[in-house]
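RECORD TYPE: protein structure
NAME: S-(Hydroxymethyl)mycothiol dehydrogenase
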Amino acid sequence: MPHTVNAVVVAEKNAAAEIHQIIVPDPGPGEVVVDVLTCGVCQTDQHFQQGEVGDNFPYLLGHEATGRVAEVGQGVTSVAVGDKVILNWRAVCGECRACRKGEPKYCFDTHNASQKMTLTDGTELEPALGIGAFAEKTLVAAGQCTVIDDVPDSANAAVGLLGCGVMAGIGAVLNTAQVQRGESVAVIGVGGVGTAAVVGAKLAGATTIIAVDIDDRKLEQARRLGATHTVNSRQTDPVEAVRAQTGGFGADAVIDAVGRPETYRQAFYARDLAGRVVLVGVPDPSASIELPLIEVFGRGGALKSSWYGDCLPSRDFPMLVDLYRQGRIDLDAFVTERTSLDKVQEAFDTMNRGDVLRTVVELSA
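PREDICTED:
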């Protein structure tokens, strides 16, 4: 029987994120209904609110979540009722040209639920990143669930962040930049994703890890989580500072976790010859950049983008949960504050002030 639950919806561009009652249908073939436990407040949800991702309003927000499987549809065998899961927005199809080439991390046809959740008047909702987890229950494809039954409830808020921001940052370093032991890494912008990139650089064995930001609070947090050097780019030229800490050459890999033309230009010039630039910060759709083509040619190396940290959730989530359990990743440090479903708009404001790495909405246990 369909469920009527509370959820956070944005009715139109730049409207407030407000609580509405929504209808979650019974799961169809290949679908799962999940009782949401926690959901992180991510910048991407605000991009949906502001119409920067699309215009398929109304949007059901939330995507960085843990939950417990409540119902499964026909043919679902990968999860069972009662399983605790992290939700992901890359449920690979196994059939597209990327999957057939053995590159499922680039799957071009990732699965979402076929049915739509709706408002009580029947208006169809567009779930953020195919998840819509600022809700008491949500409907997803079974492949969007990674089982984590061995994680205690006290860790739900922390491991749920692997569903987006933390995975994006760590994956940008480990999967996209493929940082090796002894290399140098600079991270421009150390909010949630950038700080996760610092953690990823430490995991990879980088010996010089340079955090760049305009906020000394964020820089101090990055230092606590693994940065060996910090640069306040309001006070110091970040390109010159990175070169100064790398023998005058530049870093082997530079991660742009901001996604603005000026930060990408900094990343481009702060890398060593044959170094890698990785863009993981989501740019404004109207943004563009101009670089001298001879510099692109002459510096060699690679200019890459990292979409979801080039991750495979079924492979990477369990690995990172294990590292968390071993004490090698401090995911708890990313949870700055906890809040309730009716406080999402306030959480956006807190995020915009730079007061948190992550606010996490906690629902039922």
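COMMENT: The chain has eleven helices and 18 strands.
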